[in-house]
Amino acid sequence: MLVSMLQRKRVAVVIDSNAVWDDWLLERDVWTRLAILSGHGLIEVCLPEVVVQELARGYKRALNNLVAGLEKLKLTKLASLLELNVPPNIADLNDSTTEKIATYVPRLRARLAELGVTTLPVPAVDQQTMLTRALEARKPFDAEGKNGYRDSLIWYTVLSMCKDRGPSTKIMFVTDNTKDFCDTKGELHESLLEEVVATGSSPIVTARNLRLAVQYLKDVEHLDTELELDEFPVVTPSREQIEAIITAACEQIAGQRVTTAEQVEYSDASDFSGFHTIIEDEADLQDIQPDLDTIEWELAGRDLDGRPMLEVSLDAGVTLDGMAFKADYYGADVDSVSVLDGDWNDHYMWVATYHRGRLSLLVYLTVDGMHFDAVELVNAEDIVREAISED
Predict the structure, then answer these.
(1) pLDDT tens for each residue of 75-120
(2) Are 258 and 221 in the same domain?
(3) Per the database record, which ranges form the DUF4935 domain (predicted)?
(4) Judgement on whether residues 227 and 244 belong to the same structural domain of the protein
(5) Residue 224 and residue 248 in one domain
(6) Coil, strand or helix: which one is 333?
(7) Is there a single domain that holds both residue 350 and residue 253?
(8) How confident is the model at residue 386 (pLDDT cuts 50, 70, 90)?
């Protein structure tokens, strides 16, 4: 299926800072498509080291500016009203910010490795070359030769890539810098094109953002046509993402109707007959509190819509509510039961029962593998019942 790939030039995608600005950990959906194409050897995705360091500086500024804007707010009231996990005072918020800034670059590098992105080193260009370029006001320096040092380092990174890869590789430069690199049409300035030609490389293709870059790879290079759905690799979520995904899955399950009897005819409700409860036949799954330390999971491929699937099991606190016979309540463990309405009718009362259970879930992620999309409850067992049966 990938034979035609060998008959064309490989594409190397070099990304400028402005193409990823504000997407600090590269979480937008477009990275999934790039990772898929890269994982099959159809493209090479590259981020200059200069860009990594610019992102670190930008992230620090953005976070500090955000915190500065919150200093006049009453954080405790904000957290209470919006139910946000916000530190109660600015000092605690600053501590959290400091930690995030300190760990940003390692997190970014881990994400780059996860996506299969090549980090291009700072180019070995001598100071005299940079000085001459500035004094001659050659792009990407400005007309006075004062601004453009970091952009020039990025440009020399691109030129180094052209020399190293040679004419067998097509270079795509993703940048929206229409002042220093490109003209208003998004095409490289003529003087920069001449430098590319001097390296012996193929002409550089430009794209103003990653979405347009992926569109070019699809429409011009036709790379998408070489991949079938079941060939798409799944990007493994981080532990932090897994916990957020499982929490969202449990929130979606809460509120479902479940069966508590061994057999309930004509019901498509989830089976909770493994739970020891006095509730008759069916109950509402009122609340689930996942124990994130007990999560066990593994990737199970993709479904027909291309969504990655996770098979998950975990312990959780579970609250059920429904109707119970009054006689059953008086013989029950009252510590695990709350009476919501003790006189629903002559025979029934409305109760809530509390459990610690082991849940098995099939979780569907968004196509990029980073976020929660949907969940199916596969199995539920009461841990207390399991312990009794083992004894």
Answers:
(1) 555 554 444 455 555 666 667 778 889 999 999 999 999 999 999 9
(2) no
(3) 13-181
(4) no
(5) no
(6) coil
(7) yes
(8) very low
- The pTM score is 0.56
Answer yes or no: are the C-beta atoms of 157 and 14 closer than 8 Å.
yes
Q: Which two tokens stand for residue 292?
A: 């994130």
User: DSSP readout, 223-258?
Assistant: -GGG--GGG---PPPPHHHHHHHHHHHHHHHTT-EE
In eight-state DSSP terms, residue 269 is S
| Coil, strand or helix at 302 | strand
Q: Are 314 and 253 in contact (CB under 8 A)?
A: no
Residues 280 and 219 grouped into a single domain = no
Angle at 163 between CA 120 and CA 54, to 5 degrees: 25
Q: Which two tokens stand for residue 18?
A: 């402005």
Scan for tokens 């590269």, then name that residue: 26
- Reduce the DSSP state of residue 303 to 3 states and report it: coil
Query: Where a domain ends, among 189, 206, 231?
Result: 231
Q: Does residue 141 sit in helix, strand or coil?
A: coil
Highest mean pLDDT among 81-90, 105-114, 251-260, 370-379: 105-114
Q: Which residue has the tokens 């916000």?
A: 86
Tokens 């089976």 locate to 271
**Do 59 and 197 lie in a common domain?**
yes
From 199, 231, 263, the end of a domain falls on 231
Structural domain of 34: 3-231
Token pair of 356 as six digits: 């610690």
Q: Are 234 and 308 in contact (CB under 8 A)?
A: yes
Q: Count of residues for the chain? A: 391
| Strand positions, DSSP E, 30-164 | 43-48, 118-120
Going by C-beta distance under 8 Å and a sequence separation of 6 or more, which residues neighbour residue 292?
243, 246, 247, 314
Could you tell me if 64 and 188 lie in one domain?
A: yes
**What is 309-331 written as a DSSP string?**
EEEEEEEEEEEEEEEEEHHHHHT
Domain count, the chain: 2
Do 225 and 245 lie in one domain? The reply is no
User: With left for phi above 0 and alpha for psi between -120 and 50, is residue 104 left, alpha or beta?
Assistant: alpha
The string of pLDDT tens digits covering residues 264-274 is 444 456 778 87
> Among positive and negative, which fits the CA dihedral 85, 298, 25, 27?
negative
